[in-house]
Amino acid sequence: MKKKNLNCWRGYRHSWQNSLLAVGGWMQMSETGSITDGRKVSFIIANWNHRQLLHECISSIYETEASLSLEIIVVDNASSDNSAEHIKKTFPGVVWLQNDTNRGYAEAVNQGVKLSTGDLIFLLNNDITLAENSVKMLYSFLIANQDAGAVAPRLYYPDGRKQISCSRFPTLPALLMEFFGIDKIWHYRRLTLKEEEHLSTGIVQQPMTSALMVKRKCWNSVGPMDEGFPIFFNDVDWCYRLYANTPYRIYLFPEAKAVHHKGASVKRLGYKKWLIFSRGLMRFYRKHFPFRSVW
User: Which of 60, 110, 216, 270 could link 130 by a cystine bridge, Cβ 3.0 to 4.6 Å?
Assistant: First the structure.
């Protein structure tokens, strides 16, 4: 397979042609107010000791997407807060997969996707609450745009502040510019996208997989998450492989919205968080360096 030229420096592209296609496609499909083409969306949620947030996440799916053909699969990493009993009783339609040990986020997601049957896969953190019609918007966007392999909504903090949820790939220049607060030098850009780059529909390199809808064909082309990244950088690695090995693109579609209690699970790791983060970054570099320059 011929390697594509990957431009790791820019990390965001707002194309008028792509944007018009995307928004126009969504408007055309949303006029009926419902989805009737028979496709199913599989919601995959990894959980670890967040019963209440998980409850709110699942509630938001049922409350906002009642007309959707869906399945919800929760993969629990040995929670000790009675998550299983509560969710099974409250939401009997949820498929519950129980792990005896904490196998990490990547393996839990892979387990859920393997069990799922939907045409579209919606990866959700247990600390996400979906806004009304957000799933229908993302669904319609993916169906309307052939090059879109995955699409992410705009994320907000619980207090209403906008969340910076999209990044470029972590090249050394991007990391250094992020550290020193420099936005741009020549064609180099800092790691995280600026707030104004989150305001319009466009192609992004690496959105958080806290809320990411993926075409199953795209998932199969990229492959499962690398379980060598149990917590951090599994999403970065997956997005990098999408651009390196497939013709698909990842979009941010800010008209669709979700609330994200950022870091609810990883906060419990304490000081180990930074150790695991550093190990993930080094493994990402060992796996992919030298980086191929993503469009």
Answer: 60
User: Mean pLDDT by 10-residue block, N- to C-terminus, for the chain (295 residues)?
Assistant: 42 42 39 59 96 97 84 97 97 98 95 98 97 94 97 96 87 66 64 70 92 98 93 91 96 96 63 76 84 52
- Please report the DSSP string for the chain in residue order: -PPP---TTT-EE--HHHHHHHHHHHHHHHTTSS--S---EEEEEEESS-HHHHHHHHHHHHHH-TTS-EEEEEEEES-SSSHHHHHHHH-TTSEEEEESS---HHHHHHHHHHH---SEEEEEETTEEEPTTHHHHHHHHHHH-TTEEEEEEEEE-TTSPBP--EE----HHHHHHHHHT--EETTEE-SBPPGGGGSS-EEESEE-TTEEEEEHHHHHHH-S--TTSSSSSHHHHHHHHHHHHSS-EEEEEEEEEEEE-TTTTGGGGTTHHHHHHHHHHHHHHHHHPSPP---
Given this model, what pLDDT does residue 31 score?
Answer: 35
